[in-house]
Write a structure and sequence with these properties.
The complex is a heterodimer of chains A (471) and B (466). Chain A is α/β, with parallel strands linked by helices and 471 residues long. Chain A contains 16 helices and 14 strands. In chain A, the strands form three sheets. Chain A has a six-stranded parallel β-sheet with strand order 1-12-11-10-13-14, with helices on both faces. In chain A, helix 1 crosses helix 7, helix 7 runs parallel beside helix 10 and helix 12 packs parallel to helix 16. The N terminus and C terminus of chain A are likely disordered. Chain B is built from 22 helices and 13 strands. Classes of the chains: A alpha/beta (471), B alpha/beta (466). Chains A and B meet through strand 9, helix 11 and helix 12 of A and helix 11, helix 21 and helix 22 of B. The structure holds iron/sulfur cluster (SF4). The site of iron/sulfur cluster has 10 residues of chain B, from helix 5.
């Protein structure tokens, strides 16, 4: 096992998504929030389209529309202009301003600029504006998301809040789906907890059809909830990438945090339930017994198809780790796991080789290791086609299948569904054997030897035999 | 008439199993009739269809209400190298009116439509319980249809209620003997022409064998009935020798073809490395005795040597992981001792094996391999099996598909060895696949995970996360 970086100086079929996109995703999980890219309009438009293709929703995302001239002179003016325009047109409850490669290249201090802006307009602007530095040229989606969540905690969570012993904070990693978030709330609820999920995409990008339309996120964690986080019993940090945000929250408020890196599969979820039982002082509710039994049965039924298979995975670090361990436990071997970016969790990923790379690496590795399937986002479809092996779509973006955000991946229930879905990939392509399956290149005709040609004759014996009865 | 046929089929002189029985027992036949309340095995119709459906270019039409074909079609894996007409489920789907007024007209129309639409070289018509009960005469309908449409229409008179699957196999054989075999003369005949009887090419197993015969120079003139074409079966009476694949299901065909056409046969198996080699040798021996070139034998030996070496080598490769793991082997038709030796070569310990269909000679071979304390099992109830697995007296169960859930509910790995399985286990390559499958099942980490107690179990050692 080891981590290795790409030796190539170019990316061949990128796996990576940009930092600002991750940042925008985090803000989209806050109620009434409006993410704004501080950069040229093109970056925003690409991000908008990609998020739209994945979530199948209209995405509120604004731009400071930097031009060639403003980029050179500095973007402070554009930030002010854009923010003023936004407040004039509507009233978002939070604005998330995310820098891009363009503005970071100039070394612009986006946080300072926003502080300046707010200071000058103390009387008129009451809406919090959270600026996050998310240069395109560093990190990827997970880092951008992490940076945004850290800044949200930093800016919006007060040091003290009324104690609420039955409140749990959940810092939700970017790898969780809408259904995962719903399920986390349901599960913690079964232990008597009320969860504040930050960010909460299950209330904004879940496809719910509202009766009004607003150019901002339609739901998500409210400001009020964010301000209550300091009074919670504990914070569950789902995904190690959000550990810095958990630490920050702890330092600010003293609420202890528990880092949960795995939620997929039997053992991972056993541990999670034990943790909740420990935190709540309650026994694990009976309702989980049946769910666990069903997963066990699904494991038995699916191990025939998964055991001994080889998978090449290419996912954001937290998802990569959880999914790899889950698959490994099902007897799938993982010759190669590719992450778009470096992350501490990569050292835990149970694959023969873990490397930072792109879909070009995935295709090459899957080819040379004769992998049986790939698991990555929709862009893996080309490699999957060329290699002739199935693609299990997960992560971001999934734009060529419906319902990606509604797939439950975590818990006994999610694991069960995942096992069935992957097994079905194989069942759908069970190949029928042909005459050359076991001996390729065999002629199909018996050799003629002893210099004797096959004889196109009636056999001699037939004369001595009785004629066929029914001839 | 049918009862007479059934009696005759039961009284099978070439079945050594049968020879050892008393006169009265013999009449009862080797298929036990299902008792009310017992979990049911397949009916005679099922057996007949299994035996004939692998004739891939023919149409197979089931005369009866929807249950017989509707509940059973498209569930077996007989493979074809070409035509796939056989995979279509054709049934007359008799209605209430047909039951009252008779279904013969409908059957005739069905045959006509199938002939017009698909132009098959032949149509097999299967009788089932309901039309048999109301007296539909499929033999006459088939005869008229055959004359009208100018192609063979073969009645297969094996309605379910006459008995089990095995009997159905035999009645299917009777249908072939009566209506098909010997009705066409072959275009070509060679001194190495061989019939393979009772091999259905499930999961393509014939193709684990045929390439070797090609290499040796043996021509399969007809396989009954795996991947067969109607014409091949119809002209199979000109072969020089035959192999009867050991399931005994089609022993009547082999014997009667010997009687009628002088085609000698031997009984053999493609399962297990030593059995496979033995079968190849017997083929060569019989063919040479019937006039094939004498060097057929040495060519056979060479192929055996090459293939055995590759297979043993591959099987030994699994030893590292499999050494000492305990196997419970409950096979149906497969001769177990032949498989036992391959398992032992892979380092596995066979803690029990079924001998239900083994001859005393087979039993001696097992004792030779496994020692005197060889655990030979005549029959084992699911409960006993479950207990044995649960108490870890065996690490893996190799058995038929019906036992799968016994093993899985005991959280013990399982490999399917009967005919509905997904993998081909015949010949040398097949035996390697078999051991590979055992390896794949035994080394899966899922068993360990499943055996850990649930988090609410007092024995649970899993800790919360902190
Ligand atoms: S027992 Fe009779 S009715 Fe039932 S499936 Fe068999 S043939 Fe059909």
């Amino acid at each position: 096992m080891g981590t290795k970086s790409a030796e190539r100086s170019f990316l061949s079929n990128p796996l990576k998504m940009s930092q600002p996109l991750g940042g925008a995703l985090a803000f989209l999980g806050l109620g009434g929030a409006l993410p704004v890219f501080h950069g040229s309009q093109g970056c925003t438009s690409f991000g908008l389209v990609l998020l739209g293709r994945h979530f199948k929703e209209s995405i509120p995302l604004q731009t400071t529309a930097m031009s060639e001239i403003t980029s050179t002179l500095g973007g402070g003016e554009n930030i002010s202009a854009a923010l003023l325009k936004i407040f004039e047109k509507g009233s978002p409850s939070i604005v998330g301003l995310l820098s891009t490669g363009l503005t970071e290249t100039k070394g612009e201090d986006i946080v300072g600029e926003v502080r300046q802006f707010l200071k000058l307009r103390k009387e008129t602007v009451k809406t919090p504006v959270v600026a996050v530095s998310t240069p395109d040229f560093k990190g990827g989606l997970e880092e951008g998301y992490q940076a945004a969540v850290c800044r949200i905690v930093e800016e919006l969570v007060p040091g003290t809040a009324p104690k609420k012993p039955f409140q749990l904070n959940i810092l939700a990693g970017s790898h969780l789906t809408v259904s995962d978030l719903d399920y986390l709330k349901e599960v913690t609820g079964r232990f008597g907890f009320e969860a504040v999920v930050l960010p909460d995409l299950s209330r904004s990008l879940d496809g719910f059809i509202p009766d009004r339309f607003a150019p901002m996120s339609m739901g998500g964690t409210t400001l009020e909830e964010i301000r209550s986080m300091g009074g919670a019993r504990a914070t569950l940090v789902i995904g190690k990438s959000l550990l810095p945000a958990g630490d920050l929250l702890f330092r600010k408020t003293g609420v202890p945090s528990v880092a949960i890196s795995r939620l997929m599969g039997l053992e991972a979820f056993d541990r999670f339930l034990l943790t909740l039982s420990h935190l709540s002082g309650r026994a694990i509710p009976e309702s989980f017994h049946r769910e666990r039994g069903r997963l066990e049965d699904a494991m038995l039924d699916s191990h025939f198809f998964l055991g001994g298979k080889k998978a090449v995975l290419a996912l954001e670090p937290d998802l990569l780790n959880d999914f790899a361990a889950f698959m490994k436990g099902m007897g799938v071997s993982i010759p190669l796991a590719v992450s778009p970016t470096e992350a501490p969790i990569l050292s835990e990923v149970p694959a023969d080789l873990v490397r930072v790379g792109d879909l070009g690496d995935v295709e090459e590795g899957a080819g040379s290791h004769r992998a049986d399937f790939l698991a990555t986002h929709s862009h893996g479809r080309q490699a999957s086609q060329r290699l002739g092996i199935p693609l299990f779509r997960m992560g971001f973006p999934v734009f060529d299948r419906l319902g990606a955000t509604h797939r439950l991946l975590i818990g006994y229930r999610g694991a069960k569904e995942t096992l069935f879905r992957i097994s079905n990939l194989f069942l759908a392509r069970e190949e029928s054997p042909d005459p050359e399956t076991w001996y390729p290149g065999s002629s199909g005709e018996p050799v003629v030897f002893d210099d004797r040609e096959p004889v196109p004759i009636r056999p001699v014996v037939s004369a001595q035999l009785p004629p066929p009865e029914n001839a | 008439m049918l009862t007479q046929k059934v009696q005759e089929v039961f009284n099978e002189p070439a079945c050594d199993h049968n020879k050892k029985k008393s006169e009265s027992d013999r009449k009862k036949g080797c298929t036990k009739v299902a008792q009310p309340g017992a979990a049911a095995g397949g009916c005679a119709f099922d057996g007949a269809k299994i035996a004939l459906q692998p004739i891939v270019d023919a149409a197979h039409l089931v005369h009866g209400p929807i249950a017989c074909e509707g509940n059973s079609w498209d569930n077996r894996s007989a493979a074809s190298s070409g035509p796939d007409l056989y995979r279509n489920g054709f049934t007359t789907d008799m209605s209430e009116l047909d039951v009252i007024y008779g279904g013969e007209k409908r059957l005739f129309r069905a045959i006509r439509e199938i002939v017009e639409r698909h132009r098959p070289p032949a149509v097999f018509v299967y009788q089932t319980c309901v039309p048999a009960l109301i007296g539909d005469d499929i033999e006459s309908v088939s005869k008229i249809a055959s004359e009208t449409f100018g192609i063979p229409v073969i009645p297969v008179n094996a309605p379910g209620f006459v008995g089990g699957k095995n009997l159905g196999n035999k009645l299917a054989g009777e249908a072939l003997l009566e209506h098909v075999i010997g009705t066409v003369e072959p275009e070509v005949s060679t001194p190495t022409d061989l019939n393979v009887i009772g091999e259905y090419n499930l999961s393509g197993e014939l193709w684990q064998v045929k390439p070797l015969l090609d290499r040796i120079g043996i021509r399969i003139s007809a396989c009954l009935t795996g991947d067969a074409r109607y014409r091949e079966v119809a002209s199979s009476h000109r072969a020089r020798a035959a192999m009867l694949v050991c399931s005994k299901a089609m022993v009547n065909i082999a014997r009667k073809m010997e009687e009628r056409y002088g085609i000698p046969f031997f009984e053999g198996s493609f399962y297990g490395i030593s059995d496979m080699s033995e079968s190849l040798r017997n083929m060569a021996r019989l063919l040479v005795s019937r006039g094939a070139p004498a060097d057929l034998a040495s060519r056979t030996e060479q192929v055996i040597r090459e293939e055995e070496e590759i297979a043993w080598e591959a099987i030994r490769g699994f030893r590292k992981d499999l050494e000492g793991r305990k196997v419970l082997l409950i096979t149906g038709g497969v001769k177990s001792w032949s498989v036992v030796s391959a398992l032992q070569e892979a380092g596995l310990v066979v803690v029990g094996t079924s001998v239900k269909k083994s001859t005393s000679e087979d039993k001696d071979r097992i004792k030779e391999l496994m020692g005197d304390d060889a655990h030979m099992i005549d029959s084992m109830s699911p409960m006993e099996m479950y207990a044995m697995l649960k108490e870890a007296r065996a690490d893996i169960l190799l058995a038929g598909g019906r036992s799968q859930f016994v093993a899985l509910k005991a959280k013990v790995p399982f490999v399917d060895v009967n005919q509905e399985r997904r993998f081909a286990f015949a010949g040398y390559r097949g035996m390697v696949t078999f051991v590979h499958e055992i390896h794949r099942a035994l080394t899966n980490p899922v068993w360990e995970a499943l055996k850990k107690p649930a988090p609410w179990d007092p024995d649970c050692r899993t800790t919360p996360i902190f």
